[in-house]
Specification:
Length: 250
Amino acid sequence: MAAAAPSTAALQNSLVTFQSRSPSSNSINPANLSFSGGLRLPKLTTKTTNKSRRGGGYTGAKMADSAAGSYASALAEVARSNGTLEATAADVEKVDKLFSDKQVLNFFVSPIVSLEQKRELIDDITSSGSLQLHVCNFLNILIERNRIDLIKEIVKEFEIVYNKLTETELAIVTSVVQLERQHLAQIAKQVQRLTRARNVRIKTAIDESLVAGFTIRYGNSQSKLIDMSVKKQLEEIAAQLEIGDIPIPV
């Protein structure tokens, strides 16, 4: 059975202050990784295991999604209640960036790294001021409950909750090269007109296969698509002429 999500009181009141002890030399290398304006994390060299995650197949995935949603909702509720929703959303982006490093993720999910060593790194993050205290408390709770492996799913679920609370429409703009800010602003206005959302948040991605132009995905799970790419235009021309795919020079 999945552990219950943390209560708002637990996130607000639990302290992340632990005595510092030197980790064993075979688990952490002295080399450093940088994070969020000054925080230094040790390079992690622990071995990973191939143990399966809780549950299995479809059932296990559904349980994980449900747990991730519960944790994300709990964090969002704390942030909303103390007026730090925007700052917490920014912190969650930092957390996402941090755990995108496979060495960092492997360290925190590894069963051969002690709970205290994991806590010490969270304590370092707290001391550096890189993240708000309740966000650090949240990470610490995930570590204690062996749910830190859900962190990427939690980040995605938090974004969904945040967008609902702030009436924000997320649009993903994919182009061959990075678009100028004024162009992104125009796209945001167009998406806002289509969706009537109070706010529009733009995320960008690069895809050279588009040749030129761009695509916009928005709506529930980005299910709606506006395709303004040259690749799409070539595909439509090929379909009309019934000549198959038009080769695109690289």
